[in-house]
Amino acid sequence: xxxxxxxxxxxxxxxxxxxxxxxxxxxxxxxxxxxxxxxxxxxxxxxxxxxxxxxxxxxxxxxxxxxxxxxxxxxxxxxxxxxxxxxxxxxxxxxxxxxxxxxxxxxxxxxxxxxxxxxxxxxxxxxxxxxxxxxxxxxxxxxxxxxxxxxxxxxxxxxxxxxxxxxxxxxxxxxxxxxxxxxxxxxxxxxxxxxxxxxxxxxxxxxxxxxxxxxxxxxxxxxxxxxxxxxxxxxxxxxxxxxxxxxxxxxxxxxxxxxxxxxxxxxxxxxxxxxxxxxxxxxxxxxxxxxxxxxxxxxxxxxxxxxxxxxxxxxxxxxxxxxxxxxxxxxxxxxxxxxxxxxxxxxxxxxxxxxxxxxxxxxxxxxxxxxxxxxxxxxxxxxxxxxxxxxxxxxxxxxxxxxxxxxxxxxxxxxxxxxxxxxxxxxxxxxxxxxxxxxxxxxxxxxxxxxxxxxxxxxxxxxxxxxxxxxxxxxxxxxxxxxxxxxxxxxxxxxxxxxxxxxxxxxxxxxxxxxxxxxxxxxxxxxxxxxxxxx
Length: 535
What we know:
Belongs to the ABC transporter superfamily. Drug exporter-2 (TC 3.A.1.117) family. With about 525 residues, the protein is an alpha/beta fold.
């Protein structure tokens, strides 16, 4: 294979608080035609900064201190932004991490995908329209004829990510830099996108630089791995060899956190005899889309035993988040019955409904967006107490510090603001805020999907510990079936607003009855094939 890209002794810095701080130290690796090379490591390890530097898109406060970036034999490290523009999209394309901020909100999807073709290809408007439709269909976007007329705010996060991938694929570039390209996607959509990249690699010799914190995914898909930590490469090599015989302790720790093994959780004894914590019976819900009615819940019934973890799984649009919103009282069901902790919540309104929320609290998906950036951590955690309980300043302080300690958040951090914390610390704050009113039930919406594998393992361990100590019930909404297998006692599989299958986790994973459930399970990334190959 020929070398398309060579990074030689690259060192990068950011200007912060009046001084330059080196964040990537003397990094070297090569990317060959047709291969997928994965840069793996935790947030802040330098992998995204390295990828941005390659395409000349470092943040304004970033700079290259030294090193070469050699593309097709030519050092492009000192090229001007204008000269690099001639490469972007043609030779190298970037699929950015955040679909929410990467699309123009005032342009239609069709215009944004077509723009790349318009800039670089002399084809008719009709040909461009056909190519846009073909690209949207290729990345698995449903109803592409309708999507080209829509704006970004009308699409889900997963749909937006597929649009970004379509833009990156438009000109069939030599190299695609994919920065966490599937982190917002369901496992089946993730598989489809990565299968598509594999086809491009085989057919066109396109190389993929895959930036990810998902080591299982990297291990399954990449030809070679480069393991980053604190701006340095810890080890690199053929994926199967790195996974089966890691040389560096940090790589071994990442592997351990990413593959904790299947845990057959025993159902707590009290769960079998007590009143269920949650009962949703025959829930129906429709939304109006113009003249059409969209059914998001069709006769859905779910029972969650007290003190257990129940997972709601399914692809985007399956209805799982809508069910959670109905349970929490944010949305009203069209029909059906909701019983929370023995209380019929279906008919509650006003103050009675507000007081019921003390029993059931919500932990949001994104720890970076769910905390008020203007408040201190103390104020964030304290706020529910101010809303629900008449306590003295000293009593509130004691309660806040006690719950912070319970979630392993150092008390000295409470004077800080969210921007000063890591993702894992922020999610601990969100959990502390949810626990401060001593609820019986927590609803967790993708509560670990934005976290690195090591931090994710810590948060899941914390949740299990809190459940054992406090007898909490969890409703865990997720598309991450590997996490479900580790933490959930029972599972409901949703598809297009209907229950496809439900039961205890071990049974669902070992003997799934429905083809859709089997497809979800089959799409879970696994280390095992690689380990077998290298044996």
